[in-house]
Write a structure and sequence with these properties.
mainly alpha, Arc Repressor Mutant, subunit A, two-stranded antiparallel ribbon, 5 strands
C-alpha cells in the first residue's frame, strides 16, 4: 500500500467503506474503527426499523425509552427531546405513532406533576428483549475495559462528537 501505515477511507453515496488499518495506534485507525462501527450501527437500525415497520427515528426513540425504563423514574418527553436532538413537534408525532401501536405509553411522572413519563407499552415486550441483547453487548464490552480505557474511549467519542458539530468552511467560489 505504498508504505502507508493506514488504509484508505473510501466514501460512497451514504456509506463509508473502510479497509483494515495496519497501524492500530494511529488516529486514522481509530477513525476507521469508528466509521466501521457507525456503518454497522446504521445497518442495524435500518434492519430493525424495517422489521418493525417504523422509521429509523421512531425505532431509535423506542430503543431509548426501553433502555431508560430500567431507571426508577420514567423518561420525560422533554428529556428525550434533548437527548435525541429532535423538535418537540417531531418527537410528539413519533410518540403518537408508537403509542397507537401500543409500543409506548404516557404515564404521570412520579416526581414532576406537570410532566408525563414515557415507558414501554405492552406490545414492546418482545422488542425490548432484542434491544436488551444489543445494549447488553455494549455493557459486556465496557465491562472488559479498564477504567482508564473506558475514560479514553469516552474522551475520543466526545471529541468526535465535537468535531462533527464543527461548521463547514465556505465553499470555493468556483462551485
Amino acid at each position: 500500500m505504498n508504505g502507508d501505515s493506514t488504509a484508505p477511507v473510501v466514501r460512497q453515496r451514504g456509506h463509508v467503506s473502510v479497509s483494515e488499518p495496519t497501524d492500530e495506534a494511529s488516529g486514522a485507525a481509530a477513525l476507521q474503527a469508528f466509521l466501521a462501527f457507525r456503518n454497522a450501527d446504521m445497518d442495524l437500525w435500518r434492519r430493525a426499523s424495517t422489521h418493525l415497520g417504523l422509521s429509523i427515528q421512531a425505532t431509535r426513540v423506542l430503543a431509548r425509552i426501553i433502555r431508560s425504563s430500567e431507571m426508577a423514574v420514567p423518561l420525560r418527553q422533554v428529556d428525550l427531546k434533548h437527548s435525541m436532538q429532535m423538535s418537540a413537534a417531531g418527537l410528539s408525532q413519533v410518540i403518537d405513532v408508537l403509542e397507537e401501536r401500543r409500543l409506548v405509553r404516557r404515564v404521570p411522572h412520579t416526581t414532576d406533576r406537570r410532566a408525563y413519563g414515557l415507558e414501554p407499552g405492552e406490545a414492546a415486550e418482545p422488542i425490548a428483549r432484542v434491544f436488551d441483547e444489543y445494549f447488553a453487548a455494549f455493557d459486556r464490552l465496557a465491562a472488559g475495559l479498564t477504567p482508564e480505557q473506558r475514560a479514553a474511549v469516552t474522551t475520543v467519542m466526545r471529541g468526535m462528537e465535537a468535531a462533527s458539530a464543527m461548521p463547514f468552511a465556505e465553499p470555493p467560489s468556483s462551485l
